[in-house]
Recover the amino acids of this structure.
């Protein structure tokens, strides 16, 4: 036993300890044993709580990992205290280091916080067509990461938006409602009868298979301009077919106006010369 104690006395300075005894080793073993058992029990408890919460399903892995790291760090501090190491100085040093890291990674940490908020609140899911920040960016959600949310736009671009901006922006989710309304404005001459213009526009809307019959397509006058009358057609379709219906209306109404004898006017000035 004395030889073993002498060995411990030789090891203690290398570990930065004043002394290392058999009793302190026994206490360390006891703390490790109890700590490992406690960590396993607490980890299972956290898993049960996370399993019972559907809103936290997407962030379960991150929460479990964070709790696991925190518990092992707490056990390490307890072991340091058992060995007589000054724990307060370690905590102070780690606090200063943590502050420096948080300041250096401020934008990254804000993106991570935004990503966790998105995963918990779930304003959209993969495959949803969304509009972020009042029309600033729109597209199909391709990826939801901790730092960035990626959208695929109508023209095939992949846009990565920092989650700090996404979580603070106004988000419009068109997929959640199961359909989307298409509004298109057309201008027609004052000389064209109102009903003829409406019939020409509705003829195109009724010919499109993607346009829903309920609610039925409607056409209304929206503005009396200087040289034309503006008509708006409102039809409902699926989110996926929105742009197909929009483009079909834009092209089809021009041809329909030509068949019905409706003039699509443009800004012009009529000059009348009075004879004296």
């Amino acid at each position: 036993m004395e030889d073993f104690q002498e060995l411990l006395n030789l090891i203690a300075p290398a570990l930065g300890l004043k002394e290392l005894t058999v009793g302190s080793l026994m206490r360390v073993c006891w703390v490790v044993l109890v700590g490992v058992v406690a960590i396993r029990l607490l980890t299972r408890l956290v898993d049960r709580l996370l399993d019972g919460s559907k809103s936290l399903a997407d962030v379960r892995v991150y929460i479990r990992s964070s709790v696991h790291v925190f518990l092992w760090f707490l056990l390490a501090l307890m072991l340091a205290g058992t060995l007589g190491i000054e724990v307060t100085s370690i905590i102070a040093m780690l606090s200063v280091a943590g502050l420096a890291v948080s300041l250096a990674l401020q934008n990254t940490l804000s993106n991570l916080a935004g990503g966790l908020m998105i995963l918990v609140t779930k304003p959209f899911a993969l495959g949803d067509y969304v509009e972020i920040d009042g029309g600033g960016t729109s597209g199909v959600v391709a990826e939801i990461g901790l730092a960035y949310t990626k959208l695929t736009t109508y023209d095939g671009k992949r846009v990565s938006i920092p989650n700090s901006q996404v979580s603070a922006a106004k988000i419009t989710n068109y997929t959640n409602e199961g359909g989307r309304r298409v509004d298109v404005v057309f201008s027609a001459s004052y000389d064209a009868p109102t009903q003829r213009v409406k019939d020409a526009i509705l003829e195109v809307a009724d010919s499109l298979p993607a346009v829903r019959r309920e609610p039925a397509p409607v056409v209304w006058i929206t503005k009396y301009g200087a040289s034309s009358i503006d008509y708006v057609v409102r039809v409902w379709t699926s989110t996926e077919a929105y742009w197909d219906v929009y483009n079909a209306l834009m092209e089809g109404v021009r041809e329909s106006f030509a068949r019905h004898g409706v003039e699509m006017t443009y800004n012009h000035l009529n000059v009348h010369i009075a004879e004296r």
Remarks:
- The chain has three domains: 2-104, 123-173, 180-260.
- The first helix runs from residue 2 to 14.
- The beta strands are 129-132, 137-144, 148-152, 158-162, 171-173, 180-188, 218-224, 229-237.
- The two ends are 134 Å apart (CA to CA).
